Amino acid sequence: MTAYPAWTPASRPGIIPLHPLSFGTILGRSFAALRQNPRVLLGFALLVQTVGYLVVLAAVGGIAIASFSRLDTVRPGTEEFDQITAGSVAITLVAGLVLGLAAGALGVIVQGIVVTEVSHAAVAEKLSLGALWRRVRPVALRLIGYAFLVALAVLAVIAIVVALLFAIGMAAPPAAIGLAVLVFFAALPLSLWLSTKLLLAPAAIIIERATIRAAVVRAWTLVRGRFWSTLGIIVVISLVFGAVAQVVTLPFSFLSAGLSSIIAPTGAPDAAAVIGMIVTLLLAQAVTLLIQSVAVVVQSTATAIVYIDCRMRREGLDLDLLSYVEKRDAGTADLPDPYLVGIGRLAAPRFPAPYGAPPYPGVPSYPAASHGAPPRYAPPPTAPRRTPAAPPSVPPYAGGPGVPPAPPHPTQWAAPGAAPDDRGASAS
After folding, report:
1. Quick one: pLDDT at residue 305?
2. How far apart are the first and last CA of the chain?
3. pTM for the complete prediction?
């Protein structure tokens, strides 16, 4: 009996096609990923953003009230009053900075959940929030540590620059002003360059379980050759959400001004005017939190898709993902994580270079047999030209005057029935 292979249905499509992606595909799929799992992506991001905002607001407000309440025990205008005021302001600013960093750590956890969800959605897998958290939990502290290190490095650089400008300003104020303007215009391209180079470090920590140092090196390597497209995606997404935030918050500012003029036309700060302004501000803040949550999800999704695209181009990750999908849909169990199979591998060029051309930049030249590519074209060897053989010599005419008869040529026909040795006799 002949055994036929079992029928296997077509693989389910993921949120991205499993081949190197174009700029428009990355940008479009970054916004379309919210439809894949909105309850997990948008709901979790909105919850974390709201809780973080409320905790920071309540904590900073409590610290400010506690510190400034000491001013009630001191007479205004005295030296002690000024010292307490300066100390209260400093304590409030430091508390706001520390709590802001803590809220930023919660944002990093949101990024970890989103990147993990996108990595599974690329192979048409949909996980619950609990399953996603179990995958992020082993690297959560590492991810938060990376965010704190980046924030501390930025703060340290800002503090050093401000101290230098202050020292120069004490000696030469005009020079300090010109240097401050120069530093401001130089900081913008530098920050864009560094943010693009380090964009994929969180994805390397989350997906590859890399250490902080290895993730930084990995991000630097993967972005090589894809810098401008990655920078374009970051800038476009930032501009889109910046414009949306401005468009959405503008009506609330007009609404607040209109309510204050309707409720309190004489400008008296009564309770109704205060309540109307508070309600308007709360509505504006709620919409702002919603926009920020969507922005965090879209930016994290774009980071994950750029990471997958860079690995598909550099390491052939698309082949690993296709193999994983085919084996999974065929019923194979205990499959390894496809994102951990070819880490650091250099894939061959997608298209062979023409004969005599150098390989693609950054990709070494491998033997063709190692990756199944056809051998490079080589011109066939030139065969030596064959010269035609000389025709056989024809004997002179026998029987002329003064010419002795020549023996017959072997090619001459003999008489029928004569032996080869009797050719001469029969001819004579």
Report:
1. 92
2. 82
3. 0.70
